[in-house]
Specification:
300 residues; alpha/beta; Lysozyme-like; 2 domains; 39% helix; binds zinc ion
């Protein structure tokens, strides 16, 4: 472990975050993960090893605004590192989106991800995807636009919008180029699937196992399947009974009571074999025998 701590923050690598998070005790209900970019500081303001410096600067700025701690719970960096706020630990309500902070975690991704701004590094990208997947896993949250929310989907008063609206949204945050855009469509198309795939990977679900055939049946499909099974079973029994009665397979074992009648019928030249005779036919042979007609035939 290479976790670094000072008075106000913990800084760790991407790989250290999940084991750390799993040990944390969450004492409040968290149902929303906010998505932000810092805009300023941007990538030009950061270099490797600057994590505490940047965190302290953001904290000082927030304190100067009269807040009692840094606004966000978690910060991600261009080098993939993750900063945890101690003054705004996971169990403290953040100051991220006015009107939407209760039950939320505020995550600030350092950079300016508006169009024309910073090009997100691969390390940063991987950390952001992993972070949201890991938080969703820990907090048992579905990966959707109700539980992972962009700042841009809210008005300055904290009213949830149907989508990013340049006229009504409080900000462009997390940026008009954040994972393909800051709209709900962009989130659902470009960001959330990556988070879901990462969560599946963490849970040991291999992508190859997810295909049409492996999807469990719905209740309705299951009912239909069971009805079909019952129908097939009933039909099979009916066909078997008919087949037995008609001796369609010509392999019926006759009761020994037919033996004399069959012998007599053969002797009279009425039949060559009894192996292909159905039960109704054997009954007729028996009747003819009982009437003594085979003897008549044999005599002539
Ligand atoms: Zn924001």
């Amino acid at each position: 472990m290479n976790v670094q701590v000072n008075n106000n923050f913990i800084v760790m690598s991407r790989d250290e975050f999940r084991p750390w998070l799993q040990q944390q005790k969450i004492t409040r209900s968290i149902t929303r993960l906010q998505v932000h970019h810092t805009w300023s500081p941007a990538y030009k303001d950061f270099k490797d090893g600057d994590e505490f410096k940047r965190l302290e600067a953001m904290r000082n700025y927030h304190l100067s605004q009269g807040w009692n701690a840094i606004g966000q719970n978690i910060t991600t960096f261009p080098n993939g590192k993750i900063g945890i706020s101690l003054g705004r630990n996971l169990n403290v309500t953040p100051a991220g989106i006015k009107g939407a902070n209760t039950g939320a975690l505020c995550i600030e991704n350092l950079g300016n991800f508006n169009i024309g701004g910073d090009n997100m590094t691969t390390a940063h990208r991987d950390t952001i995807v992993h972070l949201y997947a890991t938080l969703a896993e820990k907090l048992h949250l579905p990966i959707d636009t109700s539980h992972i929310v962009y700042h841009a989907w809210y008005t300055p008063d904290g009213d949830r919008l149907g989508d990013y609206d340049p006229k009504r949204s409080s900000k462009t945050c997390p940026g008009t180029a954040f994972f393909g855009g800051n709209t709900i469509t962009a989130a659902a198309q470009y960001f959330l699937p990556l988070v879901q795939a990462e969560l599946n990977k963490l849970k040991g679900v291999t992508p190859a196992a997810i295909n049409e055939e492996d999807q469990p049946m719905t209740a309705e499909e299951k009912k239909q399947f069971e009805e079909l099974q019952n129908t097939v079973k009933t039909q099979s029994e009916v066909i078997q009974k008919l087949s037995d009665r008609l001796n369609l397979n010509s392999d019926q074992k006759y009761a020994s009571s037919y033996k004399d009648a069959v012998e007599a019928a053969k002797a009279a030249g009425a039949i060559k074999t009894s192996a292909d005779k159905s039960k109704p036919e054997l009954n007729i042979i028996q009747m003819i025998y009982n009437m003594g007609l085979f003897e008549e035939g044999a005599k002539h």
